[in-house]
Design brief:
Number of domains: 1
Strand order of the largest sheet: 1-2-3-4-5
Protein name: GNAT family N-acetyltransferase
Organism: Bacillus mesophilus
Keywords: Transferase
Pfam family, one: Acetyltransf_1
Strand content: 25-35%
Largest sheet: 5 strands, mixed
Order of helices and strands: EHHHEEEHEH
Number of strands: 5
GO molecular function: acyltransferase activity, transferring groups other than amino-acyl groups
CATH architecture: 3-Layer(aba) Sandwich
Oligomer: single chain
Number of helices: 5
Distance between the termini: 47 Å
Radius of gyration: 16 Å
Length: about 150
């Protein structure tokens, strides 16, 4: 098993299919069906952003999934202190490789990166209907800090 940084936006776009398809299945009124071409173009447009890091997890040179993280700095305000965090945009493991610990290995790698850059907090969010991912993050020591609610009109 190997975790590396990648700028291969075409590979990230193809590995995105499983997580995007899940989002579409859970929330078809919110998400479009997976479209490789448009997702590839999106990742190509952001891949060189210095705040973004894409981690690729492979086994025997076979890509299993990825994590997309962002270095964020929240400035001090009248209400809050300033803080630097790593925000996890996405983790996607292909369907045949799920439940084998690869997602947890990616989370440990993200924690190593946070320590390397003296970042004391990792943030993320997930869709409420995705109970599996809720359980995954809980198992990996993450706690709910804030909840986002909405009302369709």
């Amino acid at each position: 098993m190997n975790i590396t940084h990648t700028k291969n936006f075409e590979l990230i776009a193809s590995l995105n299919k499983s997580v995007h398809t899940l989002h579409y299945q859970l929330y078809p009124t919110k998400f479009k069906p997976y479209d490789y071409q448009s997702i590839k173009e999106f990742f190509e447009s952001i891949i060189d952003n210095p705040n973004f890091v894409f981690l690729l997890i492979e086994e025997k040179s076979y890509p299993l999934g990825y994590a997309w993280i962002e270095f964020r700095s929240y400035p001090e305000t009248a209400f809050t202190k300033s803080i630097d965090v790593i925000y996890v945009h996405q983790i996607s493991i292909n369907s045949i490789s799920r439940n084998k610990g690869f997602g947890s290995l990616l989370m440990l790698e993200i924690e190593k990166i946070a320590k390397q850059y003296s970042v004391s907090s990792i943030e993320l969010d997930y869709w409420a209907a995705n109970q599996k991912v809720r359980d995954f993050y809980k198992k990996n020591g993450y706690q709910i800090n804030r909840e986002y609610v909405y009302k369709n009109l």
